[in-house]
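Our working data are protein records whose layout never changes between entries. An example says more than a description, so a record of this kind follows.
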Amino acid sequence: MKDALPLYKSYLFSVAYNILGQIQEAEDVVQDCFEDILSTPDREVQNEKAYLTRVVANKSIDRLKKLKKEREQYPGTWLPEPYLQTELPAADEEKTDILSYGLMSLIEQLNPVERAVFVLREAFDYSYASLAEIVQTSETNCRKILSRARVKLRSEPLRQTNGKSHRELLDAFLRAHQQGDIKSLASLLKKDVIIYSDGGGKASAALKPVTGADNVMQLLEAISGMESVQAQTVQILRVNGRLGLVFFSGQKPETIFCFEVDKMAFSKMYIIRNPDKMKVSY
């Protein structure tokens, strides 16, 4: 099985990242899994992928229990670390097993076991029998766990596609921002739009969610008026598989905007400014 480890590294990272919401933590969990296996005599495993998934998922569950306690002390809103790609990949190179940013934020309300079951079932299509083996419970209980998770999430869709409307809205938002066209910017927002922002106490950000188009516009105007933002370049890149806006100072990303679209308008925005969450994935 040791020879097969590199084949599963990317997949196992996706499992860990979707459960944990942090890139370095996910990488550490996968590395820890590999070190455990490499430090013991090699042996044949009938289903290597299932075995490795069980190890990584359970390590992720244990780690998330500790991380959740740490996040309770976080200054302001804690948002997942975005999975940022600096180049738009071809369709056959997209990492489709990474959950959308909106969903990653949404599943923060699940407990570690619920989150693992939800991720493995919805993102990777594991059977209830396999889930029961991974989280060491019955199939019946796995169904109950998933049902409870879906109720908490209010049956929101797993993924939203990068459709034409999403790209058109993103282009319109970027034009309005660059031209200082406040009226056009306001027309892109739903009346009940919400902004979640994360500065981690290291960059300026709203400490609580900002709701309603008028309040959101005030925040966006304040951000657009910042000299540091005006000096930055903006690129449309993939963030967790969907198109988002990334503001750069030189080669370094400073601010990431992720969006959710509902009926041809932005319904939610996520602004990540914590410098510790700006790791670039290639």
Summary: The longest helix spans residues 48-71. DSSP finds eleven helices and eight strands in the chain.
